[in-house]
Amino acid sequence: MRSPTSILADDEPQLLAFLRSSLAARWPELEILGEAPDGLAAIELFEARRPDVAFLDVRMPGLSGLDALEIMDPEHSGIPVIAVSGGGTSTGTDPLVLASTLGASRTFPKDFDYEDFVRAVDELAGVAPAMA
């Protein structure tokens, strides 16, 4: 059976490291296909690697995660996207609400509850967590 795959996109190295280490500890079989520091790199990874699930920060420099999410079009690609955001808005609309509107499967603030996050990944990626 093929190992599940994912990509990670965030401009904050600390969050990328946290996601990478948390996912590796919980699901050693999960293969991280690549990491992106901005929306354009996230789209390139998404299109080239076609992961089982993508983790995307909605607010990144250059092409935003929201713009990337719109191009990724998770509803039509069939690839779930978990969107995270540190908050803030320049439009008056919560970026996580916008991410949901654009097709994100789940959304989380960056100060998310770890167990809620893990349950979402279990469901979206179809991955059974390793027994502790």
Q: How are the SSEs ordered, and which strands pair?
A:
Elements: E1 5-9, H1 13-26, E2 31-36, H2 39-49, E3 53-57, H3 65-72, H4 74-77, E4 81-85, H5 95-101, E5 106-109, H6 114-125
Parallel strand pairs: 1-2, 1-3, 3-4, 4-5
Tell me about this structure:
- By secondary structure, the chain is an alpha/beta fold.
- It has a single domain, classed as Response regulator (Rossmann fold, 3-Layer(aba) Sandwich), CATH 3.40.50.2300.
- The chain has six helices and five strands.
- Strands 2-1-3-4-5 form a five-stranded parallel β-sheet, with helices on both faces.
- Strand 1 (5-9), helix 1 and strand 2 (31-36) form a beta-alpha-beta unit.
- Helix 2 (39-49) runs parallel beside helix 3 (65-72).
- The model is unreliable at 128-132 (pLDDT under 50).
